Amino acid sequence: MTHEASVEPGPHAPPPDGTVAVYRGATLFDGHGGPLRPSTTIVTDGAWIRAVGDDAELDARLPSGAEVFDLDGHFVVPGLIDSHQHIATPPDRPAAEAVLRRLVYSGVTAIRDMADDLRQVGDLARATLVGEIPGPDIRYAALMAGPGFFDDPRTHQVSQGETPGAVPWMQAITDDTDLRLAVAMARGTHAAAIKVYADLDHTAVAAITAEAHRQGIPVWAHATVFPASPRQVVLAGVDSVSHVTLLAFEGAEGQLTSYKHKPPVDHERFAGGDDRRVAELFALMRERGTVLDATAGMWSSDALAGDGPEGAERARLNSDLAARLTAQAHRAGVEVSAGTDYETGPENPFPALHEELAFLVDRCGMTPAQALRSATLIGARSAGTEAVMGSVEPGKLADFVVLGDDPTRGVDRLRTITMTVKRGHRFVRGEFDRTLAADTRARRDETQEGR
């Protein structure tokens, strides 16, 4: 190549190795579920955490020339992880960049994108990784489903210019599919996982999972794949299942045939929060380490409130169902990650993940500390990144959030955020707040001018 040029680091890039920063005096929630650690120092080197320990212990070993940040009176938690996002259905680059920007300035340092137009998502993941744009790390999935699913309008939105079901990031699977090639094609998109969605029986789910694992890639599945039941999906060996309300189809009276033709849910069956068949399923999930990406609060969101009394009642029933099943899963010891599957409006200063955490506490019986663990260490486990994310400890990425108040006293304290550190780069919340205020004024002015 005759026109190579040196690439300057992006404005939001991680600092280079050898750039040492010291954050001292914090009270730390490290992500493992133990008690808060007062008077704690975190030493970072470039994008990584070098040391975590007592202030007095580390003071004597601090390198000369390190930049020191006094966090006395502040609290630190690991970077938050939203285990269920969609940022390109349909593709809209400015909207996606705005969502990603708000996420990272709100403490979210990683997300799982659960199938989208990976032509755009792949570039967004690159751009946030190298710091061209502000945003969390993005772990994304390539989707597989039965042929009957691909008349869904969303599959056309994410395959524009191509044939839905016949692209590497969204493949229709039949008995004649060469799964070795199909998984290899999905991996070629740089996907972090295969997402198994709909219209596949248990033998197909098991075959996809086995081949994906053989090629070293995890499988993230819908909790019911239709006709594959929740138990069959878990027995297939998938790494995580999404949407707790889909677990209501375990032991359903009606036959499971296809994604479009679901039998009705008997909501009364779950009113006591102790359904026997679901309890057996949760025991199996706990035994196998299957993570539940509950998306529990989505039916309480404005995005799914429904139109008219009928839609509102459907949302209420599903919200109650989600709360009961998630609470039962939590009591059974199932690892529950914090995922959303929707976003708050652009005028909202905080993302949907904050609402999901509040739902887990208010409706599902979790303590604030347990909900935080769902959004940190369990979130990392769901994304397959536990080795480098999810807790504040040496050897992991320098991903953490600085807060003005104790979030173990209430997850609403996450709104006291002052700074996100993502791969060692500092995102100061005040910068985002000033921009949001200016954008809000601009929208208001545009509305008034159009009257």
Summed up, what is this model?
The protein has 451 residues and is an alpha/beta fold. The chain has helices spanning 55-59, 93-105, 118-130, 153-157, 179-187, 202-214, 230-235, 276-288, 308-331, 352-364, 368-374, 377-383, 429-449; strands at 20-28, 37-45, 48-54, 67-70, 75-78, 80-85, 108-113, 137-145, 166-167, 170-172, 193-196, 219-222, 240-242, 291-293, 336-337, 400-403, 417-422, 425-428.
Describe this protein's structure.
- The chain has 13 helices and 18 strands.
- The chain has 451 residues and is α/β, with parallel strands linked by helices.
- The protein has 2 domains: 20-77 and 400-436, Urease, subunit C, domain 1 (Roll); 81-383, TIM Barrel (Alpha-Beta Barrel).
- Strands 6, 7, 8, 9, 10, 11, 12, 13, 14 and 15 form a 10-stranded mixed β-sheet that branches.
- Helix 10 crosses helix 11.
